[in-house]
Amino acid sequence: MRNDRHSVSTHFARTMIAAAKRHHLDHDTLLQDAGLTEQLINTPGLRITPEQLSRLTQGIWRQADDEFLCMGSRPSRHGVFALMAKQVVRCRTLRPVLYNMSRFYNLVGDAFRLEFRVEENTASFSLTLIEPDKDPDFTLREFMLLLLHRFPSWLIGQKIPLRYVTLDFPAPAHREEHRLMYPCEVLYRQPTNSFVFDADLLNAPVVQTSHTLRAYLRSLPLDWFKRQAYYSVYTRRVMDYLESSDDLAAACMEVVSAELHMTSRTLRRKLTDEGTSFQELKDGVRRDTAIHLLSQSSLPISQISRRLGFSEPAAFTRAFKQWTGVSPSLYRQA
What we know:
Order of helices and strands: EHHHEHHHEEHEHEEHHHHHHHHH
Structural class: alpha+beta
Shape: globular
Strand order of the largest sheet: 3-4-7-5-6
Distance between the termini: 25 Å
Largest sheet: 5 strands, mixed
Helix content: 40-55%
Number of helices: 17
Number of domains: 3
């Protein structure tokens, strides 16, 4: 079916549009170009695709000429990240990458301070906003921490395994999104925003080049918004199976447990211990795939229903309304 499609909370689109309105940008054009509407992003429970969020981000970058999305004490002109990236791609290992990233941003802007530290067996990369009240919904902090982890990971050709992430604000209503954003435990109400990892990885070689960087920059910020979810062991294995399945209708507990070489009873117990269930995981995959198909294709709802393994469109409509609060037809209209 697919292995990288997922949906994103409309929270991020709402906060971006709110910042755009505060700075008198043409928010109607921003929404239209992203394939979004005010009704969609303000309807509780609805979700959007990474592609829609990426187009919205690009629109704000262009309109405001600000890569900080109008949420910093000072703007960062569109192109600053690319300038930094062209400098650090020349580094040999991860250690100088992080050092030069922090030095670059601390020199060219004063919206936040970055600090790279190594202490015994751990390394940390932290971000502190100069004027946090300019980021009332915490979106800039979440966005920058995501960027600061995923770009160096791309440079060394592997996801940097994190011990934990700290955030300087309380756990928000959308905290479940942090499972998609940060591949580790997240600690709230901390002194700063940071990620911490094993210092041994600082010697990992940079495998990207100026040539591969050009293609990477053209795809941004979509690559930052794609799923890199943190799940426990058996949850992740079930998700991997479901996301690669071409026949969700046949993907039942017995089939998946056999693929994982265990009994269905054992798998059910493992998932319960990890705080989830097979049906919950399957519904999540169905929901995200449905959102993509409804927003990015003209497939009839009856055909989408069959692809997702529902016996009839009415069953799909009931399930989709339970997941999002609206029917598939209303979602597509929005």
